[in-house]
């Protein structure tokens, strides 16, 4: 680094405080960036809520068919399972936002 750098032009514009002493060596500090997913390949990642929503609607449809056939026990089991899946969907949507 050249030692003859003048600080006066910088002081004139208010960029360097008065009384600034030029350092003999400059050390750079690296700043850690938070890990983010590359946006270039984000479209390849599947959305987990999409699969759960599909499973939820399938379970509700199966429960409806069981109810129409008069199989109330299967209807209640499928409805309970659909409620569990809906709870998982809610948990994922809360954690995303």
How would you characterize the overall build of this protein?
This protein is mainly alpha-helical and 97 residues long. It contains 3 helices and no strands. It starts with 7 loop residues before the first helix and ends with a helix. It has helices spanning 8-12, 48-69, 72-96. The longest helix is centred in the C-terminal third of the chain and has 25 residues, at 72-96. It has a domain at 46-97. Helix 2 (48-69) runs antiparallel to helix 3. The model has no long low-confidence stretch (mean pLDDT 78). Helices cover 54% and strands 0% of the residues.
- Fraction of residues in H or I helices: 40-55%
What does the largest sheet look like?
none
Give the mean pLDDT: 78
Oligomer: single chain
- The portion of residues forming beta strands comes to under 5%
So what's the overall shape?
rod-shaped
| Intertermini distance | 48 Å
**DSSP helix count?**
3
Rg on CA atoms, Å: 31 Å
Q: What class do helices, strands and sheet pairing give? A: mainly alpha
- Helix/strand order: HHH
The tally of beta strands, per DSSP, is 0
Stretches where pLDDT falls below 50 for ≥5 residues? none
């Amino acid at each position: 680094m050249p030692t003859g750098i003048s600080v006066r032009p910088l002081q004139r514009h208010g960029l360097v405080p008065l009384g600034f002493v030029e350092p003999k060596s400059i050390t750079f500090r690296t700043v850690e960036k938070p890990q983010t997913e590359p946006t270039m390949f984000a479209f390849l990642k599947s959305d987990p809520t999409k699969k759960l929503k599909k499973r939820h609607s399938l379970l509700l449809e199966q429960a409806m068919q069981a109810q129409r056939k008069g199989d109330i026990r299967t209807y209640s089991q499928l409805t309970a399972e659909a409620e569990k899946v809906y709870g998982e969907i809610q948990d994922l949507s809360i954690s995303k936002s």
